[in-house]
Design goal:
The structure is a single chain. By secondary structure, the protein is an alpha/beta fold. 36% of the residues lie in helices and 14% in strands. The chain is built from 8 helices and 6 strands. Helix 1 runs antiparallel to helix 3 and helix 5 packs across helix 6.
Length: 301
């Protein structure tokens, strides 16, 4: 490795930001204090199921806007400046894990370890709430048939949890934007239709939900979408192989929406911030958890 130039401290700042403190509210306030970024892991097809990764995971990262704008975005940009010299690179879990494209330099093990440590630091220090749904496609196929859409099922579950979180923060009467990465004209149109159907009252409480979906191209290089991309696969890996070492998931456990709020982080998130679809059957004492045991050994970041 050649000598590095200026290295930017990821979290140097002039003051500590209370992440839930709002500025003086303007008259006729329209928008909530939170912004949501969404990504998925795995495909939503039930016709052909990958034995190595038989799940579909939807992940919602919920950020307080001030913390996101003043802390997270600068930290992500500094990470990129330190390793690439510019900030146009898009952090993509698949390319990082497989050391492809802009991340080919990670084939050098010491550099990879350092980079992953710095990336984990950004993830750990970023205050966001994680809401996720894991769809077990094999069990879904058995229970509901191949006509089900895992993405749509997961979206309904996650939006309901998002509503509960915003109600807890007294933000559920203001519009909250949910940003989703573009997938294709047909897929985006279908997703928008489903999103609006759920928000128009087709949800467990038959409530109107004040959410608005925004589709963003990967080239927009949004830090929130990139962090959402990084969290989805570790959640899926934890479901498939809960006994496997998963450093990323250990960080994420403290970010799930959970019972008890800040005093209970890392606990009580099952069926609150982390949902399994279809719901797992209750097991008797000594019975193993119902889960898939596929072949192969894909690694999480």
């Amino acid at each position: 490795m050649t000598a590095q130039g200026t290295q930017y401290s990821l979290f140097e700042s002039v003051e500590t930001i209370p992440v839930e403190q709002s500025a003086l509210e303007p008259a006729g306030r329209r928008f909530s204090d939170y912004i949501v970024y969404v990504d998925e892991s795995g495909d939503h097809s039930l016709a052909s199921i990958d034995r190595d990764y038989p799940v579909f995971v939807l992940a919602l990262c919920v950020f307080h806007k001030r913390h996101y704008a003043e802390k997270i975005v600068p930290a992500v940009q500094k990470l990129k400046f330190n390793y690439f010299g510019h900030d146009s690179v898009v952090l993509h879990e698949n390319e990082i894990r497989k050391q492809k494209g802009d991340f080919a330099f990670l084939s050098h093990q010491p550099t990879r370890e350092e980079f992953m440590d710095r990336l984990s630091l950004v993830m750990d220090a970023s205050n966001f709430i994680l809401i996720s749904c894991v769809v077990d496609k094999v069990r879904l196929n058995r229970s509901e048939g191949a006509s089900s859409n895992p993405y749509h099922l997961a979206l309904g579950v996650c939006l309901e949890a998002l509503r509960e979180f915003l109600a807890e923060k007294k933000q559920d009467e203001f519009k909250t934007h949910v940003l989703v990465e573009c997938r294709g004209k047909k897929e985006d149109a279908e997703l928008e239709l489903e999103f609006r159907r759920i928000c128009d009252g087709d949800n467990p409480g038959n409530r109107m939900l004040p959410f608005d979906v925004v589709f963003a191209d990967k080239k927009t290089n949004l830090a929130g979408l990139q962090l959402a991309d990084l969290v989805a696969r570790p959640v899926g890996i934890n479901y498939i192989r809960p006994q496997q070492d998963n450093k990323a998931f250990e960080i994420l456990k403290k970010k799930f929406f959970c019972d008890g709020g800040r005093n209970n982080v890392g606990c009580g998130y099952e069926n609150v911030g982390l949902m399994i679809c279809p719901p797992r059957k209750a097991k008797g004492p000594g019975e193993p958890t119902e889960a898939i045991a596929p072949t192969g050994n894909p690694q999480s970041t």
